[in-house]
């Protein structure tokens, strides 16, 4: 068992987490920025105004990208299972 194998698995896992989180968070951040600009332009200081659009966009990102997210996780797990003989042997 070489340490490079475990470092590679950890690296791939962290990259997968970054991809999944970015696919969900980036659209929400963009909508939050647009709502904040709108609030600054109109002097509306309501804190709850930005919550609902961000929530809706986050849920839409999960609905639209859910299949891709699940497929990425399944591919990673399948890759881990296929690497077991390489790690053990």
Automatic annotation (TrEMBL):
<keyword id="KW-0969">Cilium</keyword>
<keyword id="KW-1133">Transmembrane helix</keyword>
<keyword id="KW-0282">Flagellum</keyword>
<keyword id="KW-0472">Membrane</keyword>
<keyword id="KW-1003">Cell membrane</keyword>
<dbReference type="GO" id="GO:0009306">
    <property type="term" value="P:protein secretion"/>
</dbReference>
<feature type="transmembrane region" description="Helical">
    <location>
        <begin position="51"/>
        <end position="70"/>
    </location>
</feature>
<keyword id="KW-0975">Bacterial flagellum</keyword>
<keyword id="KW-0812">Transmembrane</keyword>
<comment type="similarity">
    <text>Belongs to the FliQ/MopD/SpaQ family.</text>
</comment>
<feature type="transmembrane region" description="Helical">
    <location>
        <begin position="12"/>
        <end position="39"/>
    </location>
</feature>
<dbReference type="GO" id="GO:0044780">
    <property type="term" value="P:bacterial-type flagellum assembly"/>
</dbReference>
<dbReference type="GO" id="GO:0009425">
    <property type="term" value="C:bacterial-type flagellum basal body"/>
</dbReference>
<dbReference type="GO" id="GO:0005886">
    <property type="term" value="C:plasma membrane"/>
</dbReference>
<dbReference type="InterPro" id="IPR006305">
    <property type="entry name" value="FliQ"/>
</dbReference>
<dbReference type="Pfam" id="PF01313">
    <property type="entry name" value="Bac_export_3"/>
</dbReference>
<keyword id="KW-0966">Cell projection</keyword>
<protein>
    <recommendedName>
        <fullName>Flagellar biosynthetic protein FliQ</fullName>
    </recommendedName>
</protein>
<dbReference type="InterPro" id="IPR002191">
    <property type="entry name" value="Bac_export_3"/>
</dbReference>
<comment type="function">
    <text>Role in flagellar biosynthesis.</text>
</comment>
């Amino acid at each position: 068992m070489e340490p490079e194998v475990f470092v590679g698995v950890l690296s791939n896992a962290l990259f997968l987490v970054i991809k999944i989180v970015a696919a969900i968070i980036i659209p929400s951040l963009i909508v939050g920025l647009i709502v904040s600009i709108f609030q600054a332009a109109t002097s509306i200081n309501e804190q709850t105004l930005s919550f609902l659009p961000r929530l809706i966009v986050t849920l839409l990102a999960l609905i639209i990208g859910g299949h891709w997210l699940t497929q990425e996780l399944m591919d990673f797990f399948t890759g881990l299972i296929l690497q077991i003989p390489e790690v053990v042997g």
